[in-house]
Write the structure tokens for this entry.
Amino acid sequence: MRSYILRRLLLMIPTLIGISLVCFILIQLLPGGPVEEMISRAQQAAAMKGGVDASKALSPDQIAQIQAYFGFDQPAWKRYLTWLWNVLHLDLGSSYTYGLPVWDVITSRFPISLFFGITSFFLSYLVCIPLGLWKAVHHGSKLDSLSSGVIFSGYVMPGYALGILLIIFLAGGSYLDIFPLGGLTSDDFEDFTFFEKIVDLGHHLILPIFCYMISEFAFLTFLMKNSALEELGKDYMRTALAKGMNFNQALVRHALRNALIPIATRLSEICTLMFAGALLIEKVFDIDGMGLLYYNSMVNRDYNVVMGVIFLSSLMAMIGRLFSDILYTLVDPRIKFS
């Protein structure tokens, strides 16, 4: 197992280089950029003053200085190698939009996305595992069919689309005005007492967390149900019942553990939920997390932030996959990686 983990860790290096190289090339093909944005702002300022030709607001020397400032006076291959060298020294560069190191920009948003990701993740597991097990035991019943219809409707509806509907019906004021429109806290949050702050924060979190959970919730429930159904029909369950073990004991001691093996693979998702996975949900609810940061950086062509988010999310995804393989061996000792 140790040699397997070591090989996986070593394979992450060329994989990350390949991902970052492809993303860097695609970013270079996008129209616009920080240089064009600054030139456009200078032209707009010149046009507002009047009497100045907007197209001549900056001289060629000034444009060359702007390109040098952002490093665009160098060929693309050299810029990539410089970026890769800086990453090896844990330097993701500086944000063109915020004027801060990319590390500082990302770490300021990371706790928010981490909270939403972990909370929704564990709430989904706490509900989906017993619910899927119950549906497997009561497979074919009316309640099973009814709950499957409700859960499947959540599976086909994207989280951001559900967020829009919840805002319209529960927070927009057109129907009900129960929840706030967005954000994490109220405007006068600092004036609240400690208990009032907890209530206000929870009030703002309910709708976003529900949207975070919805697609993962549906998938996990059906995965757990199908996995449990398969285990309940195997010979070892019939043997356990024939030896006198009651159904609940056989279910918990034997079927449940084997049914959890496919579920273990989904645990790797916890490492990526706090990055771009909830991009549109954060946009809908105006939550200043990693998803919204990635969206705004793409719109503003803030290449260093985009590359930083992609690099870290790819790294976390690969670590998550490795973590999932390790969990495989813990759930089922028969599985060996060599």
